[in-house]
Design brief:
Layout: H1 2-10, H2 12-43, H3 50-86, E1 99-101, E2 114-119, E3 125-129
Antiparallel strand pairs: 1-2, 2-3
Helix pairs in contact: 1-2, 2-3
Length: 130
């Protein structure tokens, strides 16, 4: 999975930060689409030519569709980051995000969407579902 590769490469904290930044960029896109939708509503008039009316309606539909997609993506990325972050706490010593990723060959081959990690503080081993 892409998240596992990225966490191995840059570390959990940077991955988490990047996920939150990417999700909030989608939130900004939702806000811009809302402005575009409101602008389309403001620009629409029955006095305009039919071609201009269709163009304004097309802009409104495009803003609505892009905004809907961006909102779904924002919620997915935010929830995924929080789901993984909730598992990053060592159950033995309550240390957050201070672990190392173990080689999957040490204990069999886990699923590609799981990380086998060991706490740097106490040595407790657990799996993190991605």
């Amino acid at each position: 999975m892409n998240a596992a590769r990225t966490i191995r490469r840059v570390g959990f904290r940077k991955w988490y930060e990047r996920e939150l930044l990417q999700s909030h960029a989608h939130l900004v896109l939702v806000l811009l689409c809302t402005v575009g939708l409101l602008g389309s509503a403001e620009a629409y008039s029955l006095r305009l030519a039919v071609s201009s009316q269709l163009l304004v309606v097309a802009c409104a539909i495009a803003s609505a569709l892009i905004g809907f997609w961006a909102l779904r993506r924002y919620l997915y990325l935010l929830n995924h980051a929080e789901f993984v972050a909730d598992q990053a706490v060592c159950r033995a010593c309550d240390t957050y995000a201070r672990w190392e990723i173990l080689n999957p060959n040490d204990a069999g081959q886990p699923a590609p969407d799981r990380l086998r990690v060991r706490c740097k503080r106490c040595g407790h081993v657990w799996f993190i579902e991605l």
